[in-house]
Amino acid sequence: MKPEIILTAQGHAGTMATLQSEFTCHKFFEAPDKKTFLEKHAGVRGLATFGPLSVDGKLMDALPKLEIISNFGVGVDAINLDDARSRGIIVTNTPDVLNDCVADTALALVLMTLRKFPQSEAYLRAGHWLSRGPYPLTTSAGGKTLGILGLGRIGEVIAKRALACGMKIRYHNRSKKEVAFPYDPDAVTLARNCDVLMVVTPGGPQTQGLISEKVLDALGPEGYLVNVARGSVVDEPVLLRYLKEKRIAGAGLDVYADEPRVPPEFFGLDNAVLLPHVGSATVETRKAMGDLQIENLRRHFAGQPVLTRVV
Ligand code: DGY
Questions:
Q1: Is 300 a residue of the active site?
Q2: 259, 265, 284, 309: which is the annotated catalytic residue?
Q3: One digit per residue, pLDDT tens: the chain, 311 residues?
Q4: How many angstroms is it from 75 CA to the middle of ligand 1?
Q5: Quick one: which atom of ligand 1 is closest to the CA of 73?
Q6: Ligand 1, from 50, 98, 109, 284: best to mutate by most atoms within 8 Å of Cβ?
Q7: CA distances from 192 to 184, 214, 307 (A)
Q8: Atom number of ligand 1 nearest to Cα 93
Q9: Which residues contact 264 (CB under 8 A, 6 or more apart)?
Q10: What are the b/e assignments for 134-171, b being 16+ CB within 10 Å?
Q11: 230 is catalytic
Q12: Ligand 1 mean position to 205 CA, how many Å?
């Protein structure tokens, strides 16, 4: 008999196909009446989570036999880890396999934001090159300081790429690391000491609104913000105002507070580059993430230790 699991959202095709071949999958996201669905599947022992659906104690209590929550993604901010811990539920994620891909996106955002590549491409497509002449000069990445807020596994891979572009690195973490880069004691100091502030922290209550007015003031009118972490880390209305009023030079964003809803005021800003949360979105990386999510489930139901346990 295949183990039964609940899927919180639609994953990509390959992952869905493997999940459906190895497990009996119940699709929470397709259920018109969530309460009835949970009552019907109250005996399920595994949950495969995708995306921002909040998985809290209330949902866990509706599934009293739940043993494992296997998340697709490194970020587990949608899952209440304390609630899982207190109920003895294992939580797994998909770290490392996405480091290169997210770091590529982060570096692309730095380059696109400073050099305004999307805006200059739009200029060409609109025929302005011919009618108005060359696109206005932008600013170089080389020689600038990248301040990495959250020098974890992804942050370190971003640092390598930024060094290759001739950037200097500083960082802030909750605790200092054994690395050659200068350490700043808090986000405000890091923002003051860098030209481009790169947010790579985990999401969740501990980092909620960390990028505040104070941090953006410290970044200043010549400074840029790049966020590949979670929208919740940035006070989004404040960021929007600072971009409009040119109180910072620009922002490159892959993540937003209420995805996929992005405040339309962002769309008209020439000093913002906006990506639709594509940090890890390649066929290869999404397959590797799905394989790891599935392997954790497979191992758990075979009575073996999971590979990447968070709780
Ligand atoms: C993650 O792994 O948390 C990413 O945000 C998903 O793309």
A1: no
A2: 259
A3: 999 999 999 999 999 999 999 999 999 999 999 999 999 999 999 999 999 999 999 999 999 999 999 999 999 999 999 999 999 999 999 999 999 999 999 999 999 999 999 999 999 999 999 999 999 999 999 999 999 999 999 999 999 999 999 999 999 999 999 999 999 999 999 999 999 999 999 999 999 999 999 999 999 999 999 999 999 999 999 999 999 999 999 999 999 999 999 999 999 999 999 999 999 999 999 999 999 999 999 999 999 999 999 99
A4: 6
A5: 2
A6: 98
A7: 10, 10, 39
A8: 2
A9: none
A10: ebeeeeebeebbbbbbbbbebbbbbbebbeeeebbbbb
A11: yes
A12: 17
Pocket lined around ligand 1, Cβ cut-off 6 Å: 73-75, 98, 279-280
Residue whose Cα lies nearest atom 7 of ligand 1: it is 280
Of all atoms in ligand 1, which is nearest to the CA of residue 279? 7
Long-range CB contacts for residues 213-218, cutoff 8 Å, separation at least 24: 213/238, 213/242, 214/188, 215/187, 215/188, 215/191, 216/191, 216/242, 216/247, 216/248, 217/247, 218/188, 218/189, 218/191, 218/192
Beta-ladder partners of 28: none
